[in-house]
Write a structure and sequence with these properties.
- By secondary structure, this protein is of the alpha+beta class.
- Helix content is about 30%, strand content about 30%.
- Strands 2-6-5-4-7 form a five-stranded antiparallel sheet.
- The longest helix has 15 residues, at about 10-25.
- The protein is globular, with a radius of gyration of 17 Å.
């Protein structure tokens, strides 16, 4: 099973961002746009995992979730690209921007991601060692200089995007299936700040 742990912004945040992405989609025809129903923010990418490890993974995820309260005041904010990937960033909503950075929504989300990533090896799943950057993938492309330029232009077009605020009150363990077409299936969903039922 190919698994990741992630969060999903609110329907309002997704709809608002989809409107902004749709406006530039026609200008980058070589981009493979990710349907908004598959949009998510990955907290930990687990990769291929033996199905026998899933019960321990869900137990570890429950352990982390109960220790973290829901996070209010996030928003989709700005844009950028990695090789082959166009993304929207995750920032603090306007009402959070003037607060204490130590307790900002993005800082708290980073703490949640870090806690999840620390627990996964205890379930026998070893993660890649790379810095975590909260983002939501909206498009992909096959490498070529022309497509790279188009993707940079698309990222610049979305650079000033700032969506409505949303809250995170649950995390999801998700199976990513690619055949015959990409599809996500929730394996386990747990509320933040509550014991799993």
């Amino acid at each position: 099973m190919r698994l990741f742990v992630g969060i999903v912004p609110s329907p309002e945040a997704i709809s608002h961002a989809a409107g902004a992405v749709d406006r530039i989609a026609s200008t980058t025809p070589d981009m493979r746009w990710v349907p908004s129903e598959r949009w998510h923010v990955t907290l930990a990418f687990l990769g291929e995992v033996d199905p026998d490890r899933v019960p321990e993974l869900t137990s570890r995820l429950d352990h982390v979730a109960v220790a973290h309260e829901p996070i209010e005041g996030l928003c989709l904010d700005g844009s950028g690209s990695f090789p082959g990937v166009l993304w929207l960033g995750v920032g603090n909503a306007a009402e959070q921007s003037a607060g204490n950075p130590r307790f900002s929504a993005v800082t708290r989300l980073g703490g949640l991601a870090d806690a999840i990533q620390r627990e996964m090896p205890k379930a026998g799943v070893h993660l890649e060692s790379r810095p975590w950057q909260p983002h939501l993938t909206v498009g992909r492309w096959r490498p070529s200089p022309r497509r790279e330029g188009a993707a940079r232009d698309a990222a610049r077009s979305l650079a000033d995007y700032a969506g409505p605020g949303f809250s995170v009150d649950e995390v999801r363990l998700v199976e990513s299936m690619t055949d015959p077409e990409p599809e996500y299936r929730d394996v386990h969903v747990v509320a933040l700040g509550h014991s799993a039922t």
